[in-house]
Specification:
The chain is α/β, with parallel strands linked by helices. The chain is built from 14 helices and 12 strands. It is globular and about 60 Å long. Pathway: Bacterial outer membrane biogenesis; LPS core biosynthesis.
């Protein structure tokens, strides 16, 4: 049986599709799964061993430079229509994913029902809509969607992203290191510079290097403030996702705000500590056997807003995240990774 998965973006949403692929491959040996995804996230889709072929669409480039990207779009559409699929599964529930699903050649198209899709009217393009309310984690909802479409019982086994970290991890590091993932799109998801600095100091005193990614001027300025005077901390140059993935996979541990790369770290079964404030980790939190989440304790949590009503001018680290103590974060990371126990 040939199945097409439509999950175009974003980084965290792509990662949350992995457990469903693991389930399907286990329940139906010989199943062929192709994945159509935005080209920016194609390196992620290729990580999962159950994926037969990745079809990458230049969706973001089409928005920025449509004339330059049009040739690649035509090629991708040719690849999309080259295979006739038995089933097409839209696990995103947006109009853009629904359109891609309609353009593919194949049998019945499945997705979330009109009441449970992110953009309800997208369900009008499906042959079958499955009612899976947003009361469970997105990874669980996608697992249920695959089970319903492919006709196997919802597995009762623990969530398994199914990734092989050992085959991906960077090998060139001279010292063990942790990765601090500080960058995020919402100001309300940031942690304080002081918090990051304290954590970097503790890790450095424990004999670990501290690596920080920086994309754009704002993130570079934040990293410079975090690393100032801390020899163990260093900023990595901007890189494409295929260069970032091995760095994360080779880490001894990761501390992250609510952002896509943090979800990848947890999916790699890395010791991962997540710092949450305005968002609900019960619906879109870390998925992994060695993940721990710090959740804001204020009564307004989760507000699901990119601005703070309590303190609009907080700068970085809104009140709901500022309460997360760096010492507690470090202890949580040590608990997740026995190799760090006894350090510091």
């Amino acid at each position: 049986m040939r199945v097409l998965l439509v999950k175009l973006s974003s980084l965290g949403d792509v990662v949350h599709s992995f457990p469903a692929l693991t389930d399907a491959a286990s329940a139906m040996p010989g199943l062929e799964i192709d994945w159509v995804v935005d080209e920016a996230f194609a390196p992620l889709a290729r990580l999962h061993p159950a994926v037969n072929r990745v079809i990458q669409l230049p969706i973001r480039r089409m928005k920025k430079t449509p004339r330059a990207a049009f040739g690649d779009l035509r090629l991708a559409m040719h690849q999309l229509r080259a295979t006739r699929y038995d089933l097409i599964i839209d696990a995103q529930g947006l109009w853009k994913s629904a359109i891609v699903g309609r353009l593919a050649r194949g049998g019945r198209r499945h997705g979330f029902s009109r009441d449970t899709a992110r953009e309800g009217t997208a369900a009008l393009t499906y042959d079958v809509g499955h009612a899976l309310p947003e009361v469970e984690h997105m990874a669980t909802r996608i697992r249920r969607l695959f089970a319903a479409v492919l006709g196997y019982p919802m597995p009762q086994t623990p969530v398994d992203p199914g990734l092989d970290r050992g085959g991906v991890a960077a090998r060139s590091a001279s010292r063990p290191y942790i990765v601090l993932i500080h960058g995020t799109t919402w100001p309300t998801k940031t942690w304080t510079v002081e918090g990051w600095r304290s954590l970097a100091i503790q890790a450095g005193e424990a004999g670990l290097d501290v690596l920080l990614f920086a994309h754009g001027d704002k993130e570079r300025a934040r990293v410079d403030a975090i690393a100032d005077g801390i020899p163990a901390a260093r900023r990595l140059p901007p890189g494409r996702l295929e260069a970032v993935i091995p760095v994360i996979a080779g880490a001894e541990g990761v501390v992250t705000v609510d952002t896509g790369l943090g979800h990848l770290a947890a999916a790699f079964d890395l010791p991962t500590v997540g710092l949450y404030g305005p968002t609900n980790p019960g619906l879109t939190g870390l998925v992994g056997a060695r993940a721990h989440e710090f959740i804001g304790r204020l009564p307004c949590v989760p507000c699901e807003k990119s601005s703070c009503a309590i303190r609009p001018d907080f700068g970085e680290g809104p009140p709901c995240l500022a309460d997360h103590a760096p010492e507690a974060v470090w202890r949580a990371l040590q608990k997740l990774n026995p190799n760090l126990v006894g350090r510091l």
